[in-house]
Amino acid sequence: MSTPRREIAAPHWLVQLLRSTPVPIPWNMVARAVLALAVPLAVGYALGDIGVGALVSTGALPTVLSESAGPYRYRARRLGGATAAAGLGYFAGLITGGVPAASIPVVVGVAAVSALISAAGSNASVAGLQMFVFCVLGTGQHVTGLRVEVLLGYFCAGAAWSLLIALATWTFRATSPERGAVAHVYVELAAMLSATDEATSRVARHQLTTAMNTAYDRLLTARSWLSGRDATYRQLLNLLSASTPAVEASVAMVNAGRHAPDDVIDHFIATSAAVLANQELPEPPEAPEDADPVLAALYAGLARIGKGDNRKRREVQPWHKRLRGWAGSLVSGPLTWFAALRLTLCVAIAEVVALLVPFERSYWITLTVGIVLKPDFGSVFGRAVLRGIGTVIGVGIGAAVLAAGGEGWLLVLLIAVFAGGVAVGKVRNYGILSAFVTPLIILQMDLASTGSWNIVLARLVDTVLGCAIVLLFGYLLWPGSRRPQVGGRLADSLDSLVKYVDKGLVLAPSGEARLDRSRARRRAYRALADLRTAFQQVVVEPSAAGRQAVAWWPVIAGLERVADAVTEVGVTLGRGAPAPDEADIALLTAALAELAAAVREERDPAEMPMPDNEQLSGVVDQIGAAFDAVRGPDLVERAPLRLVRRFLPYHRRA
Known about the structure:
By secondary structure, the protein is mainly α. The chain has 3 domains: 12-172 and 333-479, no CATH class; 175-304, no CATH class; 483-631. It is 72% helix and 0% strand. The protein has helices at residues 10-18, 27-46, 50-66, 72-96, 100-117, 122-139, 148-167, 176-194, 198-223, 231-242, 244-255, 262-276, 293-304, 319-332, 334-356, 363-372, 380-403, 409-428, 430-447, 453-476, 487-504, 511-538, 544-572, 582-601, 617-630, 640-647. The longest helix has 29 residues, at 544-572. The protein is globular. The two termini are 20 Å apart. Belongs to the YccS/YhfK family. Keywords: Cell membrane, Membrane, Transmembrane, Transmembrane helix.
């Protein structure tokens, strides 16, 4: 088996690491962050005690750091849980601060708990991180000389203010996020059909998948918390579900290399505007008489939009079942314990180092370690490097503030600027986030009360030490951390693709069969989108993991083309095109199953018989290309897959 000769030079992975995500600036989040963090400081200064304003502003940080786009109900749960967890951690830090014999065990214990609860989902992960961060920050507040109840009161006041800012518009914009998500699907459909070349259409295809995943997630999350009066959400979900034939036909059109008529693109844009404005949908254009099966399916899909059948309401899962599922994931998922052990060990080392460093408030070392080593936040190497780079920049900004004699209203203005930068960094790049959050916390927790140049130097040294601990003990010396661990996820994505091939190439005479087919398609595309995200996180590493991610990249693109080819065949079924023989479909699923088995067993895939069927030629060609791509990377050299199968129960052997 040949080994790819392509190597990642340092400039390449560094460029990947520093690359900013090309998303629009979230101005609404920027505005909320500025109001939440700057207003308490301004009020404190106006009343003659800017230090109190800084402490109240600190209580608003959990909401700002946990903010994300989504339905109001989802955001209320996420922000409320993160703020409550931060308050709990802050209290634990306050009552043990100044007594290392008490604070070190508490901080290490909170770190372990925060890692374990990350397995319960995204919201639990954010809450766990905030609990750890503010526990560490709380341990350094004893130097203020204020009583614990006073400090906690200021924190709670800031937390209440930030939650009010975050959710204030709920009463008159209740369904706007969900409506906007559905409208965005039609915008991406129009963009994909308007693409003039394959590269542009491929990017648009990925954006359409993301838009659909976001829309379904938001609607299902919102409806799961309603007690029955959910007519608006049901209408939007029916509208999104009824768009499936149009989506499939559009993908088939693009996969065939054809351009959609202008009236189709215009209709998608008009539909998006109507959904966003909550107006009646426009009438679909008439299909031309000489339309071929794919084009006819596209026009039929347009007519279907807005005429979907009502879906059954999603049942709310009782809290005890969710708790049981999380507990089960801990018992059956040793990788969670593996990550928790790494985080706990590195935090303990950081706490010991903090005792030896001759700086006041050296909790920043532990803070750096905990944030970088969060088990579900991507590449440890990438986050450590970006944290270091961002902090150096942030400390430089803090030094500039001191040199300018920043105080009073200038300090309020700078807090507002840094707060906006944090909101932008959260969606653009972790290094940008670190560059703004560092001077923000310095000003809030240090300069407002001390104004010392020593704080700037201490934060720089502390961050470098924290990143060094992570890179040495959590990355270089930690078993398997530099070995590729993405092959197992690739095999799981192949399993989802097998199920889609099995359901997408047969006739679907009933509504239930069509629903099963659309669900299989969504699962396959979602799995491939998640796989692409996982690879993008790993590709920044200059180790074998990064090299493997680059070598595997053609496989991901090949599997996406297989899914598109299956969609193209599926939309023609029932429109003059006969269904392929079951034996031919079985050959395709067997070939993809063999591909998954080869990845799991770290071997070359065996030669598999393929159907000799003109109708399936596009699917066969793309599967063949995927086989060639898998034969490129050296699976035997990638022993990391053995580690993955050992620690991840869902990476099962064939």
